[in-house]
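The record is given unchanged here:
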Amino acid sequence: MAELSFDVATALSLGARERQEDTVVADFPLGAPMGFAVLSDGMGGHSCGDVASGIVATELFSELNLLSGAPEEMERNIGPVLQEAVEAANGCIQLYEQQNPDASGMGATLVAPVIFGTRLYWVSVGDSPLYLWRAGRLYRLNEDHSYAAQIDLMQARGLMDADEAQNHPDRSALISVLAGAEIAKVDCRAEPMTLKAGDIVLAASDGLHTLADDRVAEVLQENAKATGQEIVAALLAAVRAEGCPEQDNLSLCVIKAGLRAEAQEAKPVSAPQSIAPRASGEVVQIDRRAHRGTVRTIVSLTRKVGK
């Protein structure tokens, strides 16, 4: 099987919010046999939503980074590794709440794709989506731990009409989240999914749901030959074009698979790169380092940004 390289880019957008509560980090070291990304969407208001997502991303990143020194052993035990990392992050949130009573009610979602060679695994909690775009089609890979999935099922069975389903007050409510208590559901893919050259893996916070899946697929199709950075920029532009007055924070991680032999011929990408705040209050940070087709993406994190 051909060896793959990965063009990786991450970004954060403030949207119409006054505070950034998403955190995203990716690590695809040069020449390493594996790489991973962690994306977390925090909740809990002004006091601690950003803290919650930061705790989750930091704990998952630290644990995966620590074990990545022995990738073969890590992959053999990937199920328990991911489950234990999630439990550790949840425990850290619980400890923070105990030490900071004002933080009661904080929580965060999680989606973390992990790649060994051509093999994709993941763990997720909450509603942050993980997509695979392949040959013109978009697939939702991870479970949606929100009532939206159940409401859509009720609509499909004729128990609710389309308008009622789309405007249901509980549609965005989560049935599982990292909040320090027992985790209701964890989606852990411990059997590998094989990636192919041309595949695009997309992790995002629910701010991406401003776009219908068909529109996301269309943007990826239009940019199938673009760089990871260009794909991220195109998705952000598509969300911005919707003009949603209540646009949520948006975080993205694009992982584009290509043949290593082809990637080695590509020109290196200079780094770091950043995009200045837009008039709408949007803030995007992209930090990419490329060499011979492999990329290492460092933490992209924005805390409080005034409009």
About this structure: The first strand starts at residue 4 and ends at 13. The mean pLDDT is 84. The chain is about 30% helix and 30% strand. The first helix runs from residue 49 to 67.
